Amino acid sequence: MTGSFSLPKPFASSPSESQTPGSLKIVFCDGCGWFARSQWYSYELFQTFHTRRLQKGLEPLISETTIAASENAGDWRMEINNQLVWDRRTDGGFPDLKLVKNRVKEVLDPSVDLGHSEIKCSNSSAETETETDASSLSSGFETHLFIHGDESDVELDEDEMLQMRRMWGVM
Fold first, then answer.
1. Which fold does the domain 1-11+19-115 belong to in CATH?
2. CATH 3.40.30.10: which residues of the chain?
3. Model confidence pLDDT, tens digit, residues 55-103
4. Which residue, among 136, 85, 130, 134, has the nearest Cα to 107 in the 3D structure?
């Protein structure tokens, strides 16, 4: 099962005026039933890096998405322009959308403002999220959980975050 679509590049007068929009590829294990999850990530990233930018009169950063089934059991990875952004096995499960948007941004254009999805270090000496240990994904960053219907944020410590990741199957 493979799906792909691309849209024509809008309103660039000449190729030198802007960079070429990127290509998003998500490869998933069909036997694991991760097609819907792959579609969701694809949709969210396309909305952020294509549709919303067009609405603001900016060049899109993603012009093509591909979702492809893999024959490798447990496989799930995401690439931008053939550069690996996330691999479920080496990065410790499935990424939080905020984290993956920031990784995609770093590949496409680090100057892009993601608004509320921007990861901001709460600690000036915090390193980027290059460690593969799942418990380290939130280290150095403020962690908030919004409870629907309640307008307060809930602070979670590392153990609570680890428990939440296990409960939601992202480890």
1. Glutaredoxin (3.40.30)
2. 1-11+19-115
3. 888 888 888 889 999 989 999 999 999 999 999 999 888 888 988 998 9
4. 85
